[in-house]
Write a structure and sequence with these properties.
Layout lengths: L2 H12 L5 H7 L4 H13 L12 H4 L3 E9 L4 H11 L5 E6 L6 E7 L2 H12 L5 E9 L14
Antiparallel strand pairs: 1-3, 1-4, 2-3
Helix pairs in contact: 2-3
Length: 152
């Protein structure tokens, strides 16, 4: 992947609905080579898909919660069991394997505190092998982007 491919990606991250002609103009390519590069980025899996960006509040899940989870055991079976269950829970948008006191950081979206309490009691507490859960509520957003930085 070269600089031109990264330009294509950044433009699509800003606006995934660009036509090939608009995209080609923005990255200073003619339409044919631009489309060829785009198809290559898609076929090699660099571009995994396209999605609509949705206003979280308007959708009905205004509360973002960051949840740190530490496991009791770190055996292959315990980790796999936890990770498989996490993938099934819709309210969890992201799950990151982390260093430090917690093993995982979850980004959860819910409608309100009552829904979050129910989520913890029925979803998280039901997961096997959890040693601890630490919750942090986001009360504002300073920056949120889906556009990756330039790679030099």
């Amino acid at each position: 992947m070269d600089k031109k491919d990264r330009q294509i990606i950044r433009e699509l991250q800003k606006n995934g609905r660009l036509t090939n002609l608009e995209l080609a103009e923005r990255v200073n390519l003619s339409p044919s080579p631009c489309l060829r590069r785009l198809r290559n980025l898609e076929s090699t899996g660099v571009i995994e898909g396209y999605a609509a960006l949705i206003d979280q509040k308007a959708y009905g899940v205004p509360l973002t919660v960051f949840v740190s989870v530490a496991l009791e055991k770190h055996s292959t079976a315990a980790v796999r069991g936890f990770e498989d269950k996490i993938k099934e829970i819709d309210a969890i948008l992201d799950c990151f394997l982390t260093t430090g006191d917690a093993d995982y950081m979850l980004r959860v979206v819910v409608a309100d505190l009552e829904v979050y309490e129910n989520f913890v009691r029925t979803e998280l507490h039901a997961l096997p092998g959890i040693r601890s859960i630490d919750t942090r509520f986001a009360y504002g957003v300073v920056k949120s982007t889906h556009v990756y930085p330039d790679v030099k």
